[in-house]
Specification:
By secondary structure, the protein is an all-alpha fold. The protein has a single domain, classed as lambda repressor-like DNA-binding domains (434 Repressor (Amino-terminal Domain)), CATH 1.10.260. Helix content is 65%, strand content 0%. It contains seven helices and no strands. The protein is globular, with a radius of gyration of 16 Å.
């Protein structure tokens, strides 16, 4: 399978739209479509973002490895992250900062072994 075919396969498997992919990796939907159709060669940075978002290795995405070695996240995981990003983007800047502070707090708490700060 080509890079575009592998991306399309994963999008279908995970129920993610091309628009969700584009929004989450910071490119236009048109650019994502060109990559999937093989009309544009993505940069290594874009391939890395796609691999992280779709939860597969860059090696597999670029055609390396066997199909059986593909690592796929729990169904719907990436889609749910995409939906959260869309919801956060729709909030006011003040509310976005509040959510960012909450995430920072939770990450610090996790770094402390789950103990309260």
């Amino acid at each position: 399978m080509s890079l575009g075919e592998r991306i399309k396969f994963l999008l279908n498997q995970k129920g993610i739209t091309q628009k969700d992919l584009a929004l989450n990796i910071g490119i236009s939907q048109t650019h994502a479509g060109y990559i999937i159709k093989g009309l544009r060669e993505p940069t290594a940075g874009i391939v890395k973002k796609i691999a992280v978002f779709l939860d597969v290795s860059m090696d597999w995405l670029m055609g390396g490895g066997r199909d059986g070695q593909m690592k796929i996240a729990e169904p719907g995981t990436a889609y749910n992250v995409g939906r959260l990003v869309e919801k956060i983007r729709s909030l006011s800047k003040e509310d976005q900062k509040t959510i960012e502070a909450l995430i920072d707090h939770l990450q610090k708490r996790g770094a402390n072994g789950g103990r309260r700060l």
